[in-house]
Amino acid sequence: MSGTSAAQPDVTLIMDADGVIQRAAVSKLVARESMQDLVGRRWEETVGDVGGDKIRRMIQDAKSQGVSGFRQVTQLFPSGLQVPIEYTTIKLGAKGGLMAVGKSLRAVAELQARLVSTQQKMERDYWKLRDIESRYKHLLEASDEPVLLLNSTTLRIVEANPAAQQLFSTGDRRKDDLTQRDVTADLSAQDRTAFQSMLRIVRESGKAPAIVLHMGRQGKRWVTRASLMKAEQTFQILVRLTPVGGPFSSAPVNDPRSVEELVEHIPDGFVVIDPDGVVKKCNRAFLEMIE
Asked: Strand, coil or helix: what is 113?
C-alpha cells in the first residue's frame, strides 16, 4: 500500500502539443492549491525563472522520443506557494497532447536544509569545545597546585601541569617527561594501595574522599583529591595535590592560587554535578548565567 502511494505523482498536467495546460490535478500534498488558474497558461510560464529552458527541453524530448528525462524545476502555484518538483513528460498518442507528471522534492529540500543546519551547529560546537579546551589548559597551567590527568584504566599520566612537572622533577630531562608515566611507580607500597583504593571508588562513584600521600623527591605529604572526567570516547581521572600544612613551595604565601580560586574567577560558567545530576559545586559565572 505504501509503495503504491509513494509512486503516485504529486502534480499531473495535461497539455496540448504546444505545452498549454488543459487540465491540472494535485495529490494530498498540495490539495489546498486551486489549479484552475493554471489552465490555459503555457507550462513554462508557471515555473521559476531558471525552469523555462528545462520545460521546453522536456516538451521537445517528449514529442521526438515519446518520453522525456526527469528534470527538477520550481513549480509556482496560484497561491504563491513554490515547491521543487521533479517532472517527466509523456506524449499521449500520435495526435494527442502531452502529460507531465511530477513528484515533490520539498521533503528532500527540508532534509537537506536540516543537514546543513546540523553541520553548521556541529561546527560551532566543535569550535566552542576547542575554546573550552584552550581555557581549561590555561587554567591548569596557571594553577600553582600540581594537577595530573590519568588514563582511568592504565593510571598512566596523560597530562601534567607545570606545578606537577616541578614536583616530580629529578633533574634528568629524559626521566622528567611525565607523559605515559605510571603515577603509582614512585609511591610506597602502603601509599600505592591507598591510592588505588581511592581510584577504584572514583571509577564507581565519580569522586572519592581525599587521602594523604607522600609524593615527589622529598616525599612530602600531599592531600590528594581525584574525580572522574569524560574525555572524548574515554574517561580520565583528574588528580589534584594540595600540600599538607601550607601552599606549594613555588607559590607566594600571600597569593595561593588554587584550582578552586581560578575556577571561581574565570568568565565561563563552571558546574560540577554528581551522576544523578545534582549540583555539587559551581562558580560565580554559572550563577549569573542561570540568574
From this structure: helix
